[in-house]
Amino acid sequence: MIDFPALGDIVTKTPSKIVMLVADGLGGLAHPDTRKSELETANIPNLDKLAGMSATGLTIPVLPGIAPGSGPGHLGLFGYDPVKYLIGRGVLEALGIGVGLEAGDVAARGNFCTVDGSGIITDRRAGRISTEESDPLVEMLDKIDVPGVKASVYPVKDYRFVLKLSGTGLSDQITETDPQRVGEAPLKVRPISSEGAATAEAVNAFVAEAQQILAEQPRANMLTLRGFSILPHLPSMVDRYLLSPAAIAAYPMYRGLASLLGMKVIPTGSTFEEEIETLREHWDEHDFFYIHYKPADAAGEDGDFDAKVRTLEELDRHVPALLDMKPDVFMVAGDHATPAIMASHSWHPVPFLLHSKLTLGEGVECFSERALGSGSLGRFQAEHIMLQAMSHADKLTKFGP
Amino acid sequence: MIDFPALGDIVTKTPSKIVMLVADGLGGLAHPDTRKSELETANIPNLDKLAGMSATGLTIPVLPGIAPGSGPGHLGLFGYDPVKYLIGRGVLEALGIGVGLEAGDVAARGNFCTVDGSGIITDRRAGRISTEESDPLVEMLDKIDVPGVKASVYPVKDYRFVLKLSGTGLSDQITETDPQRVGEAPLKVRPISSEGAATAEAVNAFVAEAQQILAEQPRANMLTLRGFSILPHLPSMVDRYLLSPAAIAAYPMYRGLASLLGMKVIPTGSTFEEEIETLREHWDEHDFFYIHYKPADAAGEDGDFDAKVRTLEELDRHVPALLDMKPDVFMVAGDHATPAIMASHSWHPVPFLLHSKLTLGEGVECFSERALGSGSLGRFQAEHIMLQAMSHADKLTKFGP
Q: pLDDT-derived band of residue B96, with 50, 70 and 90 as boundaries?
């Protein structure tokens, strides 16, 4: 969490309402021809106008120069130190497909691969076989019986799957089977510490059985496993902020992550319009709403500049509906930048605005990477956003006499 | 190092090249008549133009309000926590005159001084005797024989010299002989911990011998020693960043410091033009180049505003030659400000720019203390510069899933 132990002394419960709109992959970079970023190219009059009346700045997700994954990027937004609280790859992959995890479960990311006659990996992704081809394999693996442990296998997409182990005494203190390169055989799992011994044995037993089952399969005759991880213990936002927080997100991973932080996950549809409708319907039930907008990141990851511009314009059209609900604090934030010219997450500072009746309104001319940095919040750690939100919502009293 | 343990997991080796131009003492303050700083007074069209196309900001060398020496100032630039990794005065002085130090050597800074008939210091700097006068004294001291230890004495300048002790079991855990004021006698060295006992004895034996040798000298009849220090263990940039780093610096101290960090020190001439030529000749051999420009600091330390302006204009004329080599990341940084009106290092935030194809280009109008702060990097710790450089050079992958 934020390194501020006195927070518990000054946090109070008030009726005010906070809405945090997270536009995934919000920031961008300039198009080489126009030298304008996606935000600068987009026609976003509502956000532009709001920026001028808000406290604005640029947030640093982790550290200057560090591009975060979705896990660390979101943890920072909710006030959790993203370096201290790591969510493992297996757990995040499981959350991403909506697999329920209990305390003590171990999750891993699995790849189907191909090996030659002597067990050497020849393709780490089994020619990127389709979901249709991998689904029956997943079903076969899901039937594997490991003594003392319940092993469940879930399809993700193409050559990817999730392995979940449930039972007593399981641990994430084990090595991976993926040698990370072709030309080597998958590795046996070894315990990293003594507490991983039983889990290593269970995983090796699972893999041995899977090897036999897959041996005669034409496209994918082996698998690798990595990112063994358990649910981290994350302090609840309910206790930390005395909030009744809710999450509205179309994608399972963000719902899973929110539920790890103690947010109530409200079922919603697959579009942002439906997310907003969900927010409206549950307006009276919560005092903090995290609402997630995915398309900007997806277009950025695709490297499609014009598509990202369109997603931002679409987002802009929905801003009035959100403001109409009259939140006491309304924020537009991003978990990280996803510049279309990079087609990946990046480390660049992320546009941020906070609007409340207690913001001066700095008159910045538009909602863009270049303009927002001149606002009163400057560049600051995303981890401090929640403190700003709580204060502007009259939920933090003075620190110290 | 940067407090980011996951760095080792995300650092990768790529062919891209980084050039860090360190303009020593880069930042300044306004001239009382014109209210313009040295950078604002100088005609620096190349830097001005580059600033507009770069990510810009102001770096904080150590902490807001802390003026660093050259050691901490440079350590931060290379990503080393300048508070944690201290280079002792003796070692820095030795590096500054090109004295080679081995692990286990102890170095101290020496002053010639004058004492009265009862051994009380009357002038701590022996009337600032000239190098010509002190050189023969240094030669005499260098002949002193201390049992079990090799003592070497090197001239620095005027009344200053370096004492180097080599041998087994030496330690920096000893007190100084300099009482730091006139009216007192030089102090005996005492061990601070038990491991300093033998070294204290050796130093006291050296001083006793020196006292006899100097007793009849007319200008400087005694000496003081302080800053006993050993080579610190600094993690190598090679291991930390997977770089093949090189240093090009005309001044010995910067070469010595770079070599402590694992950089290959390339021999070069005494002018910046020669340094650039060296860079060009060795362009294919390294992926990180630190190139040092000293004159700005020297003019600032002299309190010569106009001279500092001229050094900045000279620097500016060389910028195109550096850009012509097409580094993937080009940075202009400073280890600290040296405002001419202060004639000393200062704590002010230091102008910084980073140019790469992944910088938005914030359109700041010129390269100055006032203008650069409005860029996307804002004010940030110099210690984070290397993360920015590595990311912009595509040498860091995403942190966390």
A: confident
pLDDT at B2: 72
* Shortest alpha-carbon distance between residue B267 and chain A (Å): 31
Asked if B399 has any chain A CB less than 8 Å from its own CB, the reply is yes
What is the average pLDDT across A96-121?
A: 94
Give domain A92-230's CATH architecture: 2-Layer Sandwich (3.30)
Q: Which of A174, A208, A204 is nearest to A188 (CA)?
A: A204
SS3 B95: helix
Tell me whether residues A83 and B4 touch, CB distance under 8 A.
Answer: yes
Q: What stretch(es) of chain B map to CATH 3.40.720.10?
A: 7-86+234-392
Mean pLDDT value of segment A263-282:
97
Burial A368-395 (b: 16+ CB within 10 A, else e): bbbbbbbbebebbbbbbbbbbbbbbbbb
CATH of domain A7-86+235-392: 3.40.720.10
Q: Where in chain A is the domain with CATH 3.40.720.10?
A: 7-86+235-392
Helix, strand, coil percentages for chain B (3-state, nearest 5): 35, 20, 45
Q: Which of A37, A63, A379 is opposite residue B360, by nearest beta carbon?
A: A37
pLDDT higher than 80, residue A341: yes
- pLDDT tens digits for B142-184? 999 999 999 999 999 899 999 999 999 999 999 999 999 999 9
B388 interface with A at CB cutoff 8 Å: yes
Name the CATH superfamily for B7-86+234-392. Alkaline Phosphatase, subunit A (3.40.720.10)
* Interface mutation target, options B20, B388, B398, chain A, most CBs of A under 10 Å: B398
CA distance B298 to B310: 12
Q: Which of B379, B354, B345 is nearest to B74 (CA)?
A: B345
